[in-house]
Amino acid sequence: MEEDRRMSAKTFEYAGEFTLENGKTLPQLQIAYHSYGEMNADKSNVIWVCHALTANSDVFDWWPGLFGEGELFNDKDYFIVCANVLGSHYGTTNPLSVNPETNTPYYLDFPAFTIRDIVAAHQLLADHLGVTSINTLIGGSLGGQQSLEWAAANTIKIHNLIAIGTNAFFSPWGIAFNESQRLAIAADASFQEKRADGGQNGLKAARSMALLSYRTYNAYGTTQVESDPEKTDAYKASSYQSYQGDKLVKRFNAFSYWYLTKAMDSHHLGRGRGQVEQVLANIKGINTLVVGIPSDVLFPPQEQEFIAQHIPNAEYYELHSFFGHDGFLIETKTLTGVIGDFLERHNTSTENQLNLIKQ
User: Fold this and answer.
1) Does 141 participate in catalysis according to the annotation?
2) What is the C-alpha separation between 92 and 126, in angstroms, rounded?
3) Where are the domains of the chain?
4) In what order do the strands lie in the sheet with 157-164?
5) Residue in 51, 268, 310, 325 annotated catalytic
6) 273 assigned to a ligand binding site
């Protein structure tokens, strides 16, 4: 029964128009989310997780080893919330949602949105849940962008901020990766058709491209190496790329992918606020841990070092991983130790937090 509860996303329906950063509006906003555990009396045990590009809100499913029963973040000690992002395939309002003004799905008529809009939706959900402060806000990749944006927006009290494999603004390199994937999707003629399965072949190709930015030369050289030097076709690396593309097509849609990569491109903490260095410097009074992965080619570690250098008293940790960007989802044993030590040292008064030393 407990497992069934976790696997089912809850839904929050916002009663009103949702105005986006560009001034356009969504007449309806639905947010899918998972919550685990119970909020304590003083609301000091909230853990809020911001997920990455194609993940869903069931963090116990996709981040095992860090989240789950008996793990660092568990539903016995904490009230854990993960909200599915705006535009995603997994239950939050997205391009396949029905536009109430036309009674047909939006498809490519869905309005463009930004990381800032995703965070504004998170804030609405936090208000709905009665969350007035977040003990620990954590996210990697696009999830880290959300975490930093929320801290910069300063719309809710955050005690601990953990940003992993992310940046203060998306790089030209990252935008180029995303644009290349969108070109692949756009080259699929069905993407222009108003059908839920439009652009699937393009999405498969896009995922194959993306995977090259998530992993490393050495990882492929070990996991996809051929044992037969006589082979001239049907290589392991080829079938792996095709398999990974098919996997995403089975669980996601090209329209959400298109819009979410655009949202990632939009990420810039300095937009409308001034110099990004000063925006980071204004993130005060938050215990901050920034994690970089030296083998990450999509979000190279100098981007995390930049964040840590400018947020007052932030700590920087290098997570050495064979797997590149995806290391933040794989190296959970190391992350448990690093994050657990960080939280223990900063003693935020949360009860039952890894046998916290009372000051």
Assistant:
1) yes
2) 15
3) 2-171+269-346, 174-264
4) 10-14, 29-36, 79-83, 46-50, 133-140, 157-164, 287-292, 315-318
5) 325
6) no
* Active-site annotation holder among 57, 141, 266, 295: 141
Q: What are the backbone dihedrals phi and psi of residue 39, each rounded to the nearest 5 degrees, phi first?
A: -75, 135
Beta strands in 204-269 (DSSP E): none
Contact present, 35 and 79 (Cβ < 8 Å): yes
5 annotated ligand-binding residue: no
pTM greater than 0.85: yes
Choice among 256, 296, 310, 321 that is catalytic: 296
Task: Tell the CATH superfamily of the 2-171+269-346 domain.
Answer: Alpha/Beta hydrolase fold, catalytic domain (3.40.50.1820)
d(CA 246, CA 303): 31
pLDDT digits (tens, 9 = 90+) for 245-271: 999 999 999 999 999 999 999 999 999
Helix (H) or strand (E) run with residue 139 in it: strand 133-140
Residue 77 annotated as catalytic: no
Write out pLDDT tens, residues 179-233: 999 999 999 999 999 999 999 999 999 999 999 999 999 999 999 999 999 999 9
